[in-house]
Structure formats: structure tokens, C-alpha cells
Prior knowledge:
EC 1.8.4.11, 38% helix, alpha+beta, six-stranded mixed sheet, MsrA_helical
Amino acid sequence: MVNQLLHDVDIPTKEATFAMACFWSPDCIFGATPGVIRTRVGYSGGTDPNPVYRKLGDHTESIRIEYDPKAISYEKLLDIYWKNHDPTSKMKKQYTSLIFYHDEEQKKLAEDTFKNQEKLLGSLVTEILPATTFYDAEDYHQKYRLQQHPWLCKAINLHSGNDFKRSHLAARLNGYVYGQGDMKQFNEEFEKLGIDENVADFVRTLIIKYEGQGLTC
């Protein structure tokens, strides 16, 4: 029997949007997080219309996450956010630290965790702002680490930028192929993702190669 590749997950989701110094690494980190359904990277927070990578204006590299609130809480997403970048580092606007809230509950939780982090780390550069227009980054930025493996992308029927943005499977594998998640987690879920043993074995080699290594953008 041919497995059904799990690109589409049709369940109610909520959105979260973060900026944490770059967007390739967050795409891997959140993509491999159980409860996250889809991710896409792009540009947020500015006023310049239609930003592009070489001309961002006053926008910041960001990630937008669609998550299942029954499987993972916004508090957990915030915990991952704070642990995976340096909110004290002063960077240019393209790489600064931001939390974009989508409702008042997210705003309060973000503010509460900000206060906790401030006690631990001192002065933070992080700003907490309302989510506004999110401009998708160019196709080659979407699931960037996964796209470095063309054979794998072809094997799981990913061809266009929209494929990489909408696919749950793409989000998961983009994390695994860069050492996020772990082997136990992958082995427990790869059949649910619909991938065959050849694909799974290829992904396992990459988990072993990158597991425990620091992420770079």
C-alpha cells in the first residue's frame, strides 16, 4: 500500500508570529515542534509596501506559525522563542527581536514572559507589537534547509513555493534534516507523515549528522 504523504492537515489552528534574528533557523526549530502544523517565513513590522529580501526597508525577518492550540500552547511557543535567540543583542532592523501578537491573550502572555526574561537577562531589545501584514519571503527562503536536498523534495512531491509553505510534511522535515527534533521523535511519527523507508533512512542520516550542532542562518 502506498502511504499518503501528510501535506495537508485540516484542523482549526491559531497563528503566532516572531522575529528572532533571522528566519531559516526558526523555521527549522518550530517546524520540528509537535503541535506546529505549518510555517512560513517572511517580512513583518514595517511600513514599506511589498518588501523583498534585497530591499526590506523597515521590515524584519520573521516567521509565521500555524499551530494546534489543543496540542501546544502559546506559552510553549514563547518558551521556544526566548530560548533560541539572544533578546539582548542589538541588531539592525532586519534581524531584531520582536513578538507580534494576534490577540489580547497573546499580548498579555508575551508581556508576562518579557518581564520574566528581563529579570533573568537584564535589558532586552525585544519589542511586543500587534501583528500586521505579513509578506511572504521569496520561494527559495521557504523551508530553506529542506530545499538543499532536491532528491528528498522530489520524493515527497514538493515543487513550488506554495508547496513548501502549505505542507505540514515540509515543516516537519525541514526541522529534522537540520538536526531539530530527535531520532526517537522522528521514528515515532514518520509513518504518520506518509514517507516510505527510503525517505526515512535518508532523513535519519541527516538527523545523525546535524543533531546537537548549533543552528546558523
